[in-house]
C-alpha cells in the first residue's frame, strides 16, 4: 500500500465536524447497532472526562475515503459518529426546550448541518446508509419534542420485527437514553446553559480519534478489513457484507437486494450463523473468524459473487424455515414435518441444519421428510438423553451434507450408516433414560416425552395428549414442595432427588390439577388420576403408595417404551 495514499492523525471531534465536510456511510456498511451498553459507555467516557478534568479521551479509529472531497466516505467509525450526532441532537433539543434558541441553533450548525436558505431545512453533515438515513432525518435532524419521540418508540416496539425497525429502534433508544443522561447532568450542575456547554466543549476539544484518511477506494477496504480482523468491534457478517458489496461492481444493486432478502429470512442478527451453516453444508467446517477469509478468497469477481448470493439467498429461505415451524414454507408438507421442526427447536438442536439444508436443496421432499425424522430421533438419543459430546457432530454432519450434495444417495440407510457409529445402543439409551432428571426450566421437554409415551400406550389411535400447556399440566406426583406427609415416604433418601425424575411426572388436565395441589398420593389418585383419560396417568392407579421404589420402577418401564419410540432400524 503506497504511503502517499494514506494519512493518519489524531483529531478532536470539533475538527471532525468543522467546515463543510459531509460524512457519508456507504450502502455496504452495517446499520446502526449500538445498544444501551455501548451508548452508556460513551456517555460515561464523556462525563468522567468532564468530572475528572482529563485533558483528553481517546475514542477509537475513524477510517474515511477522501477521494471525493468534501464528501467523505465513512468506512469505519460510523457507530461512534452517529451516536455523538444523536447526543448533539439531544443537547440542541434540550436547549430549545429551555428557551435558549441561540444555543440550539449554534449546536445544530456546528455539528448537525447548515440551513438551506431556499428550503429552510437542515443540510446534514452526516448521511447514514439506506436503512437508517430516512429515519435519522425525519426524527433527529430537525428539532423534535421529546414526547413525540417517546410515542414513536412505543409504535416501533409494537411494529413488525423487520431488521430495519430493530436498527432504527436502537437509534431512537440511544437518543432517548442520551437525552435522559443530559437532563440528569443538568440537574446535578444546576445551570442548564453551563452544563450543556461543558458537554459540548468536552466533545469538541477532549474527545480524540485517530483518523485514517485514504484516497484510494481499494486501500480503504483493505484498512477496514485489517483493523476489524485485529479485534475491533465488528461482526463477521459486517466484514462479509463489506467484501461482497465492495466487489460487486455493476451488480451492486442485485447483491444488495439479495443481502436484504437474506436478512429478512434469517433475522439480521443471525446472518453470520446462517452463512457459516451454509458453508459447512457445502464446503468445510470453519469458525466464524475463518469464514470471512474463506469467502473473501473464493469469491472475488463480480460474477462469482452474484452467483454466490443467489445460492445463499435460496438457502436462507430453508434456514429461516428450519428455525420457524409455523413458516408458510412448510404449508405444502404434512403436519408431521412442522411437528419435527418444532421438536428440533424444543431439543435445542441446530448443528444438524447443515444436513437438512443439503437434503432440502438436493433431494426430493419425501426423502427430506425421512432424513428430518432420522435427525430428530438420533438427536434425542445422542444429545437429549445420553448427553454425549456434541463437538463430534459438526464435522460428521458436514461430511454427510457434502456426501448428500455430491452423491445424491437413494436411501436414508446410506446416510444413517455414516452416523451409525455414534448412534447410542439400546441398552446405553435405556440406562441413561432410567436416570434422567428434567429440571423445571425444561418442562416443555418433559411434556413432549410424556406425550409420546402416552401416545405409544394408547396405540397412536386414541386420545392424544393436548399440546396446549394451559389446558394440560405437567404434574409432579411427589409434589415439588412436599409436606411432611410426603417426606415420611422418603425416610431413607432425600425426596429432592426424585422430584424432577421422569418417573415422578405425568400429564393432567389443568382443571383437575388445580383441585389436587399438594394432596396425598391417595387424594391425588381418587380426585385426579382416576378422572384422567390418558393412559400414562391411569397406570399410576396400579400403585397403592408412592415412593422411591415406585418412581424408579415407573421410569424403568418408561425407558423400555422410549427405546421403541425413539428408534432407528436401518
Mind sketching the topology for me?
Blueprint: E1 6-12, H1 13-16, E2 22-24, H2 36-51, E3 57-68, E4 71-76, H3 78-97, H4 101-112, E5 113-115, E6 122-124, E7 126-127, H5 133-141, H6 146-158, H7 163-189, H8 192-206, E8 207-214, H9 217-229, H10 236-247, H11 252-266, H12 271-282, H13 288-298, H14 302-322, H15 335-347, H16 353-362, H17 365-385, H18 393-407, H19 412-416, H20 426-434, H21 443-457, E9 472-476, H22 484-487, E10 505-509, H23 510-516, H24 521-527, H25 535-538, H26 548-565
Parallel strand pairs: 2-4, 2-7, 3-8
Antiparallel strand pairs: 1-8, 3-4, 5-6, 9-10
Helix pairs in contact: 2-7, 2-8, 3-4, 3-7, 3-8, 6-7, 7-8, 10-11, 10-13, 11-14, 12-16, 14-16, 15-17, 16-18, 20-26, 21-26
Provide a descriptive summary of the structure in words.
About 0% of the residues have low confidence. The strands form three sheets. The protein has a six-stranded mixed sheet. Strands 5-6 form a two-stranded antiparallel sheet. Helix 12 crosses helix 16 and helix 14 crosses helix 16. A hairpin with a 6-residue loop joins strand 5 and strand 6. The chain has four domains: about 220 residues, no CATH class; about 90 residues, no CATH class; about 100 residues, no CATH class; about 130 residues, no CATH class. By secondary structure, it is of the alpha/beta class.
Amino acid at each position: 500500500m503506497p504511503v502517499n495514499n494514506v494519512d493518519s492523525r489524531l483529531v478532536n471531534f470539533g475538527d471532525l465536524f468543522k467546515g463543510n465536510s459531509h460524512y457519508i456511510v456507504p450502502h455496504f456498511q452495517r446499520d446502526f447497532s449500538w445498544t444501551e451498553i455501548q451508548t452508556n459507555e460513551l456517555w460515561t467516557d464523556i462525563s468522567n472526562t468532564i468530572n475528572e478534568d482529563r485533558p483528553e479521551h481517546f475514542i477509537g479509529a475513524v477510517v474515511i475515503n477522501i477521494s471525493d472531497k468534501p464528501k467523505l466516505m465513512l468506512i469505519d467509525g460510523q457507530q461512534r459518529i452517529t451516536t455523538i450526532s444523536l447526543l448533539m441532537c439531544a443537547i440542541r433539543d434540550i436547549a430549545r426546550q429551555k428557551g435558549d434558541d441561540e444555543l440550539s441553533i449554534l449546536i445544530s450548525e456546528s455539528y448537525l448541518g447548515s440551513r438551506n436558505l431556499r428550503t429552510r431545512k437542515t443540510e446534514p453533515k452526516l448521511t447514514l446508509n439506506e436503512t437508517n438515513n430516512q429515519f435519522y432525518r425525519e426524527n433527529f435532524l430537525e428539532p423534535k419534542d421529546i414526547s413525540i419521540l417517546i410515542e414513536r418508540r412505543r409504535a416501533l416496539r409494537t411494529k413488525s420485527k423487520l431488521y430495519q425497525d430493530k436498527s432504527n429502534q436502537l437509534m431512537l433508544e440511544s437518543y432517548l437514553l442520551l437525552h435522559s443522561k443530559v437532563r440528569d447532568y443538568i440537574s446535578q450542575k444546576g445551570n442548564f446553559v453551563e452544563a450543556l456547554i461543558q458537554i459540548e466543549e468536552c466533545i469538541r476539544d477532549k474527545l480524540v480519534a485517530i483518523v485514517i484518511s485514504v484516497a484510494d477506494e481499494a486501500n480503504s477496504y483493505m484498512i477496514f478489513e485489517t483493523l476489524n480482523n485485529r479485534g475491533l468491534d465488528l461482526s463477521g457478517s459486517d466484514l462479509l457484507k463489506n467484501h461482497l458489496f465492495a466487489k460487486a461492481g455493476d451488480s451492486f444493486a442485485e447483491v444488495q437486494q439479495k443481502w436484504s432478502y437474506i436478512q429478512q429470512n434469517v433475522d439480521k442478527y443471525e446472518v453470520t450463523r446462517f452463512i457459516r451453516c451454509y458453508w459447512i453444508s457445502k464446503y468445510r467446517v470453519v469458525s466464524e473468524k475463518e469464514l470471512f477469509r474463506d469467502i473473501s478468497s473464493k469469491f472475488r469477481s463480480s460474477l462469482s459473487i452474484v452467483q454466490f448470493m443467489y445460492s445463499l439467498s435460496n438457502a436462507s429461505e430453508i434456514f429461516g424455515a428450519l428455525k420457524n415451524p409455523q413458516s408458510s414454507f412448510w404449508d405444502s408438507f404434512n403436519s408431521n414435518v412442522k411437528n419435527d421442526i418444532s421438536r428440533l427447536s424444543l431439543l435445542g438442536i441446530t448443528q444438524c441444519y447443515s444436513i437438512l439444508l443439503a437434503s432440502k436443496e438436493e433431494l426430493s421432499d419425501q426423502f427430506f421428510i425421512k432424513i428430518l425424522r432420522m435427525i430428530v430421533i438420533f438427536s434425542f438419543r445422542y444429545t437429549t438423553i445420553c448427553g454425549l459430546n456434541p463437538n463430534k457432530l459438526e464435522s460428521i454432519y458436514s461430511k454427510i451434507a457434502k456426501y448428500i450434495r455430491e452423491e445424491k444417495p437413494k436411501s436414508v440407510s446410506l446416510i444413517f450408516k455414516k452416523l451409525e457409529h455414534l448412534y447410542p445402543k439400546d441398552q446405553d439409551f435405556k440406562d441413561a433414560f432410567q436416570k434422567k432428571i428434567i429440571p423445571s426450566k425444561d418442562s416443555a421437554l418433559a411434556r413432549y416425552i410424556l406425550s409420546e409415551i402416552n401416545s405409544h400406550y394408547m396405540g397412536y389411535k386414541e386420545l392424544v395428549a393436548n399440546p396446549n400447556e394451559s389446558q394440560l399440566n405437567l404434574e409432579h406426583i411427589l409434589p415439588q414442595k412436599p409436606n411432611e406427609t410426603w417426606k415420611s415416604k422418603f425416610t431413607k433418601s432425600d425426596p429432592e432427588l426424585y422430584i424432577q425424575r421422569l418417573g415422578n411426572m405425568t400429564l393432567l388436565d389443568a382443571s383437575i390439577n388445580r383441585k389436587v395441589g399438594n394432596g396425598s398420593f391417595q387424594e391425588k389418585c381418587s380426585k385426579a388420576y382416576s378422572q384422567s383419560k390418558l393412559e400414562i396417568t391411569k397406570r399410576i392407579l396400579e400403585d397403592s403408595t408412592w415412593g422411591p421404589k415406585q418412581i424408579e420402577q415407573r421410569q424403568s418401564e418408561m425407558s423400555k417404551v422410549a427405546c421403541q419410540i425413539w428408534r432407528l432400524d436401518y
